[in-house]
Amino acid sequence: MTINEIQDLIKFIAKAGVTEVEIEKKDFKITIKSQMPKRKGEPESVIQVPVAIAPHAAGVLPEAPVQVVTPAVIEDESDNYITVKSPMIGTFYRRSAPDKDPFVEAGQAIKNGDVLCVIEAMKLFNEIESEVTGKIVKFLVDDNSPVEYDQPLFLVDPF
Predict the structure, then answer these.
(1) Could you count the other beta carbons within 10 Å of the beta carbon of residue 108?
(2) To which H or E segment does residue 66 belong?
(3) Rounded distance between C-alpha atoms, residue 82 and residue 130, angstroms
(4) Contact 77, 83 (CB under 8 A)
(5) CATH class of the structural domain 3-70
(6) CATH fold of the domain at 82-158
(7) Domain residue spans of the chain
(8) Which of 56, 92, 98, 126 is deepest in the core (most CB within 10 A)?
(9) CB proximity list for 39: less than 8 A, separation 6 or greater
């Protein structure tokens, strides 16, 4: 497991609100423990991740703690933004094909019925259309990443 995969796992666990996760594979074991979210204004929490590394030809490396400082509370960008959420489980794509331009960019104006993205589910590519008129403020999901039902995808500033 790479450090990027560990960081992605920590981010996912923080969003899901889980307090402890333990994963054990043939060559490693990872335990992630987090504190319950704090109220606004309270200090950040620290997540410690002990990582046991598989034996190598030169010998066994000791466990090394990894510390990741994450904000204890994720604040809303703005109360007047509309969050476009995923209507299904699948893989999120910003473009119809790797060689095509993205459907929308941050800062772009959209209207009702515009295609915002594609979500692949069971080898079917489902176009997700806008139900609002406004401007794309921020992407909340990376291209080519898995999404869950009702997961936030975009922030839209309505007109």
Answers:
(1) 12
(2) strand 64-70
(3) 11
(4) no
(5) mainly beta
(6) OB fold (Dihydrolipoamide Acetyltransferase, E2P) (2.40.50)
(7) 3-70, 82-158
(8) 92
(9) 73
How far apart are alpha carbons 54 and 56 in whole angstroms?
Answer: 6
By DSSP bridging, strand 145-147 and strand 29-33 are unpaired
DSSP-assigned letter for residue 140 = -
Residuewise pLDDT in 10s, the chain (159 residues):
677 777 777 777 777 766 777 777 777 777 777 665 544 554 544 455 454 444 444 444 444 444 444 444 444 445 689 999 999 999 999 999 989 999 999 999 999 999 999 999 888 899 999 999 999 999 999 999 999 999 999 999 998
The sheet carrying 152-158 orders its strands as 82-85, 152-158, 134-139, 109-110
Q: How far apart are the first and last CA of the chain?
A: 44
Note whether 3-70 and 82-158 share their fold.
Answer: no
CA distance 55 to 63: 11
What is the predicted pLDDT for the residue at 9?
Answer: 73
Burial pattern 62-90, b for ≥16 Cβ within 10 A else e, equals: eeeebebeeebeeeeeeeebbebebebeb
Task: Of 101, 117, 153, 158, give the one whose Cα is nearest residue 135.
Answer: 158
